[in-house]
Amino acid sequence: MAETQANFKVSAKIARGCSIGSTSQQLNFGRYAALSNDLVDAQLSNALDTWNIQCTEKIPVKISLDAGEYASAGWRRMKHSVAQAYIPYALYQDSAHQQAYVANQNIRLERSSSNGNLLQFSIFAVVDLANSTRSNIAGLYQDNVAITIAW
């Protein structure tokens, strides 16, 4: 019985880039009375159970947030579901509300120490329900903000 043998190569090329595990997230301020004067905070962080934005090693990564659908005069705004009523809000990089997410401005991201490919960032939001000359119309207010990842 005769035999012969040949070899073949097996290869794969991993492209540098990023992935988003889940694109639908919600930043919810909660429920408040129409006459509320509260300063309300909310937070959303990139984690394995939220966006799960991960990138290959050693590439500089930036994110930017747009102004949202209903921005006006430099303010992001949530719009009432049926009425022409708005509530302004702001988005920040830090819990002290010192570093704003300026619309369409690139922010350089760092990698998480626990998972080297997971990008570390949070979005802190604040709405001042007292910052109005009249009470808010009861109902649901919403906005959509796009997040862009660039590398």
Automatic annotation (TrEMBL):
Pfam families: SCPU
Residue ranges constituting the Spore coat protein U/FanG domain according to the UniProt record: 5-148
Any coiled-coil regions, as ranges: none
InterPro entries in UniProt: Spore_coat_component, Spore_coat_U/FanG
Designated name of the protein: Spore coat protein U/FanG domain-containing protein
Organism, as annotated: Acinetobacter larvae
Lineage: Bacteria, Pseudomonadati, Pseudomonadota, Gammaproteobacteria, Moraxellales
